[in-house]
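Changelog-linked ticket: S-adenosyl-L-homocysteine example.
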Amino acid sequence: MTEINLEVEESKVTSKVALLDLSREALTEYVQGMGQPAYRAAQIWDWIYKRYALSFAEMTNLPKALRQRLEDEAIVSPLGIVTQINSLAKDTQKVLFRLPDGQTIETVLMVYDKRRTLCISSQAGCAMGCTFCATAQGGLARNLTSGEIIAQVLYFARYLADPAAEPRVDVERPTAVTNIVLMGMGEPMHNYKNVWDALRRLTDGDAFGLGARHITLSTVGLIPMIDRMAEEGLQINLAVSLHAPNDELRAQLVPINRRWAVDDLLAAVQRYIDKTNRRVTFEYALMNDINDSPELAAELGRKLSPLLCHVNVIPLNPIPDSPFQPTSDEDTERFVQILRDHGVPATVRLRRGIEINAGCGQLRQSTTARRAA
Ligand code: SAH
């Protein structure tokens, strides 16, 4: 049995004070510690969370000397841009960011008719080891801080709010991030505290102020953390990456299944539904001849039919040197139909940004490969 180490070291990566890691109270204390009145903290908070400022120079209502001091000892955004690419249709944009310690993470913006959905990372790398996932191949480097999680959102919030911001895109650009999914790099439940600190600030009306119902947390299925999430009292959506209906197959695709088995996971999801009355999404990436047979569809349909849920069938993003290939459109339709015949609502997720490696972990991987070449 493979043991997955669930302990992660927190790393302190810069000697400067990362303002995005501070709660409002902590920011106020910090500002008062510099001999400044508390309302200066309110001004800084407003610049960061309402006006998406990236530098102290922009904070023009602060005295110049204070701006200079902040410049010397603090940072607003910890993100530097390594690569930025647009899909051909210009409706998907992906950025590879560098963190202060040199780690890199990916964030993807997807522009739909009425929605602007941001797919953000919760860790640099990932420890879960899913065999079909590009992020898994490099293992886990470290947890992101709450500020590093929030910074991804603020970066794109600023981009969307500014019609002159590069890159210009063909699509009309409404002005706000409307949805956030924690489906980038990392396992959010494995960085629980920082992720929830970030979620609280992203949903706090005094901070970023996005409705919790517009945010989805996707997990490989860490059962104790699903129970914990049920108690949080925030209406964040839960998505569970299932990918197989039984232990034998799931353990091959999602190694953490050896620790938390399918039926126990489904029981935890039922407890979550009982507690929250919220519909849960199951993600199922279809892989040719691996998990896409009619028998497996029927088994999945039988197991999920009692649950208040929805299945998001994901066409596999093939990753280089991987034995896993996507299922044909025809077999995908058949799979979905069997689920529906069992009374389980199912839809196929739109494929987005395939040519820009928008799948989880793929841009970082191709950048690393190019550097190594
Ligand atoms: N660790 C979390 C969130 C990150 S991944 C989780 O596992 O849910 C977001 C989703 O993309 C997960 O369902 C994951 O299994 C899926 N995924 C990973 N690699 C993929 C690939 N190559 N093609 C399609 N989906 C993939």
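Closing comment: Example verified and attached. The chain has a mean pLDDT of 91. The longest strand covers residues 104-111.
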